[in-house]
Structures are given as C-alpha cells and as structure tokens.
Amino acid sequence: MMKGIIMPKKPMCSMLAMLLLSVALAGCAAPATEGNGQELRSDKLIVAIGSEPEEGFDPTLGWGRYGSPLFQSTLLKRDDNLNVVNDLAESYEVSEDGLEWTVNIRGDVTFTDGQPLTAEDVKYTFETAASSGAAIDLTNVKGILASGNTIVFKLGRPQSTFLNELATLGIVPKHAHGSDYASKPIGSGPFNLVQWDRGQQLIVESNPDYYGDKPSFRQITFLFLSEDAALAAAKAGTVDMAYIPSAFSNQQVEGMRLESLRTVDNRGIVFPYVEPGALTVEGYPIGNAVTSDAAIRKAINMAIDRKGLVDGILHGYGTPAYTAADGLPWWNEETTIADGDIDGAKALLAEAGWADADGDGIVEKNGVKAEFPLIYPSGDTTRQSLALAASEMAKEIGIKMTAEGKSWEDIDREMHASAVLFGWGSHDPSEIYVLHASKYAGVDYYNTGYYQNDTVDNYMDQALAARTEEEAMAFWKKSQWDGKTGASALGDAPWAWLVNINHLYLVDEALDIGTPRIQPHGHGWPVTDNIASWKWKEQ
User: Fold this and answer.
1) How high is the pLDDT of residue 40?
2) Which of 241, 402, 470, 484 has a CA that sits 20 to 30 A from residue 208's CA?
3) With 60 as the cut, is the pLDDT of residue 188 above it?
C-alpha cells in the first residue's frame, strides 16, 4: 500500500508466543559443539523482524517491494549502494527514444517445481501485476513481447523510473500462478517456502537450485511477534534477531548487539497549499487560509528543531529530514537548512505582515489568526509525539498548530484542508513525483495539499522522460531546489519534513548481516534486502 502509513502489527497472545518460542524453537540458544569442544553454529536462523504480510507472498499483489521477495527473482536488483545490477537479466538496453526496454534473461534458471523460467513467465508476471489493482503502477506499459530469452517492454512515454519496476517485481510462473499462489509460492529466488502458520510464523529453506550465491542458512524462521514479545524472545535467547522500536533502545540484552540502520523512513507535515473554497468530488473541503501563505510554511520549517526531535523522541536513533529522499542518489543536499531558527522565523512572519495585534500569543494577518489543526493517525505514538513537539515549536513563533489524533477515515475527509503528519520513504524516485506533481493533487494520499509549481512539474517531467536513471538525477535534484524555486523548504515549502526514523534490531553478536542499504519506509521486511548474504561471523 502506498498510503504513507505503517500497517499495524497483528497482536499475538503472549502465552501463545512463549509456547511457540519454548516448544518450536527449543535449543536455539545452545549451539552444538564438536568433539573437541569447539562451538558449531547452527545452519538455522530465527528472527522476529516484521509483521505478517496479510495478502501473502504474491509479487503481482505487491509482495517484495519493500525488501527481498525471498521466493522470487527479479530482472534487476539494487546493490548495497543502490546501484542497479543484473539478477535474472544478463543485460538490458533502452532505445534512443526511451520507448522500448529490451531485457535478455539467463537461460539456466528454473522454478522450484523444476520448470524453466522463460520470457513468457516475465511477460505473464508484468501483465498480471498491471491488472491486479495493487500498488504497482504499470499503466505506461503498452505492450510486452516475449521471444526466447528476450523480453521487450513497449512504453507509452519515456520513463526512467521503469527501472524500479524491473528491480522490484518478482517473477511468478505462468503455469503455476493459481488462486492459492500467495500462500504457496513457487519461484526461482534464494528460498523456498516450507510452512506458513498464519499469525504465528513462516519457515523458509534455501533453494538448492538457486543460480546466485547460496544463502549461508539452510532454514530461516520468521516469527510474527508484537514488539513486546520480540524483546522478550531476545532476552530469553530464543531468537537471533528482533526488530524493536526506539523506545526499547536502552534495553541491554546479553549476547546481542543493537544494530541501528539508517533510513529514508521519514515523517513530515504536509500543508494545504491553496486558499480554501473548493471541494473534492466527495464534498470534502480543500485549502486553508493560513497554510496557503508561504511565510507560514517557511517559518514553521525554520522553527522546527529536527535534531531535538531525533534526540528527544527517537532517543538519538534517526536523522533530521529535509526532503522525501534524504541520503538517496537523487537527493539534493543543498536542501538542508538550519534547524530551530526561532528569531529568523519570527522575522520572516513579521516581514510578511503577520503580527500578534491582541497579545494572545498567536500572530494574525488581515483578521486571520495563524491557527489550524495538525492531524495524525491515532494509535501511532511516534507520530503523536512528533506532532505535539512540532506544535510546541510552532507556538514559539506565534503559530497555533493543534495536534489531533484521527482515524484514517477522518483523515481522508480532512487531509486537504488540515496539515497532516504522514510517513513516506522509498528507493523509487517517482515518489518525489507523486508527492509534488500537480497531476497528483488530491489523488489518494499523495499530493494532499494540492501543491503546484509549473517549474517543479517541468523538472520532474524531464526526470521521468530521461532514458536512464543517471540522466534523470539532475532534474530530480532541481525539482527540490534549483537556486530560485523548488519543492523543498528553500522553495515553496509544501512540507515540513521532520525526521528519518532509524530501524533498530537486536542481533546475535555472532551474526553478520552484511551492509544493509539505507532502509525505505517500514512496510514489509526492508532489512531482508541483503538476506542471502547473512552469515555467522568467523570463529
């Protein structure tokens, strides 16, 4: 789902969790030894690193877009530096006009049922995904030709970000893609599904016929535990790795270290950009008389103490956020601004005509007081804390943002006329486009503030129309800030980005998880992006 939300983890009875841990996983904490007493590490791994994928393991329905698809291969993939390299593909090329992408695939790959993977399977996968209604936008694909080991994708217009679809959509077998595929996947990836107990665990084993580097672990068990139960399992020594929230970061667990992975899993405030008056087709209000003033948006961006938010709310496990793409290759580093500039923010407001005429602590202009709601999804304690803290910071400059927890149904109705605290973050640069392009104004949870800047639109259009991701880089960066305008705080400030939340894992001291790349938004299991390289450290 591309709604800027982290799906809630399924609750699990603690007694059931402990029963599973004590019975099914008995012996995990006690490695075997050789006759001479030398410790042997098991070829099995037990982890509690994320919530259960409710729709199962079908890539045509979205599985694998945030982390490794485990059971399926992709045509291309990103390495630890986010460079695109071959996976199933032996090579690919883009026509001069950018309308044809030709991919040549390996001829030595089989699915786990023994059938060969062919270009017809690739064609079937993309056509099925295009019609699935899932969060996979393949509307620009106008035709797919398959012949031998070659696939040709015909696009309606040039699209540099099509590369991301080739790198994230796992290939399914045309001959075995039935109604039960999501629970019984057949693929050509590094792992096979052995057992899935819904609400409890997933057991996978390494694929002996995998064409790539073989995983170090013969078997991996994924436990679907709540955060509290995952911490308890780590303390009990019954898991080798566990995801924890920043609130648990001070917990010391014997034999485990804390891994803090940098992310682009951001949180930020999107502002209504236009004056009020219009309505959506559903009859919901659009626009806000306060936030439509650029001085208000810029002043809030200046007043926010992002480092203070990281230190105080994330316990130091995060980074200040300035755009939707911080740290990624297409990020414009010039968008970084000084934090917590209260005096500068006050001066900006005064210059724009905002003043506290009646002494109530709230500035006003032309009879309009600088006050508006800041809504966030109720039940999300991190967003609640960020919203309350940001509101206090805005209060220092005479702006009253009232933090209010709402259901997603309420947010749907109010998000075009109120500021909203959303979360985003992706390895796909097209996320910059959907958050800021005028054509996405009011579409789903994308450009909810109805932001529009023709110059920014033009830069993003040029980025999409580039033949390659490399050619698109300069345009993505200019869309954020070109020295005069852009979608960052230096330009129109349609957002006040706050923080990027590090992903925290308790990891067995002896487990080497390689060099995970900068992590995306917390959907799925993003830490598994390099799971095939996990191994025990040399003894």
Assistant:
1) 53
2) 241
3) yes
pLDDT band at 42 (very low <50, low <70, confident <90, very high): confident
Q: What are phi and psi of 483, to 5 degrees?
A: 100, -15
- DSSP characters over 209-261: T-SSPPPS-SEEEEE---HHHHHHHHHHT--SEEEE-GGGTT---TTEEEEEE
- How far apart, in whole angstroms, are the C-alpha atoms of residue 229 and residue 199? 13
Domain match, 219 and 160 both: no
The tokens for 103 are 């991919």
For residue 26, the number of C-alpha atoms closer than 13 Å in the C-beta half-sphere is 4
Residue 283 is classified by DSSP as S
The pLDDT of 337-360, averaged and rounded, is: 97
Alpha helices in 274-380 (DSSP H): 294-303, 306-313, 342-351
Distance between CA atoms of residues 258 and 252, nearest Å: 9
Which among 322, 321, 273 is positioned nearest to 294, based on CA atoms? 273
Average the pLDDT over 4-13 and give the result.
Answer: 35
Tell me the three state secondary structure of residue 130: helix
Residue carrying structure tokens 């911080």: 326
Beta bridge partners of 116: 110
Buried b (16+ CB within 10 A) or exposed e, 6-45: beebeebeeeebeebbeebbeebeeeeeeeeeeeebbebb
Name the strand (E) or helix (H) holding 119.
Answer: helix 119-130
Q: Are residues 323 and 460 in the same domain?
A: yes
Centroid of chain to Cα 126:
22
Band (217; pLDDT cuts 50, 70, 90): very high
Task: Dig out the tokens for 398 from the structure.
Answer: 């005479």
Q: What is the pTM of this model?
A: 0.90
pLDDT class for 454, splitting at 50, 70, 90? very high
Which of 325, 315, 329 shows the shortest CA–CA distance to 504? 315
- Residue 204's H or E segment, with its range, is strand 201-206
Which tokens belong to 177?
A: 């893609």
Residue 166 falls in which region: left (phi positive, over 0), alpha (psi -120 to 50) or beta: alpha
Q: Are residues 222 and 257 in the same domain?
A: yes
Count how many residues are written for the chain.
539
Tell me the C-alpha distance between 388 and 511, whole Å.
38
Same domain, 70 and 134: yes
User: What tokens does 425 get?
Assistant: 């973050």
Domain that holds residue 24: 1-52+198-262+503-539
Question: 377 — phi, psi (to 5°)?
Answer: -70, 120
Q: In total, how many domains does the chain have?
A: 3
Report the pLDDT averaged over residues 363-369: 97
Would you give the distance in Å from CA 382 to the centre of its chain?
A: 16
**242 and 304 housed in the same domain:** no
Whether 154 and 212 share a structural domain: no
Q: Among residues 207, 198, 43, which one has the least CA distance to residue 109?
A: 207
Angstrom distance (rounded) from CA 211 to CA 232: 38
Q: Report helix angle 306-313 to 381-395, nearest 10.
A: 140
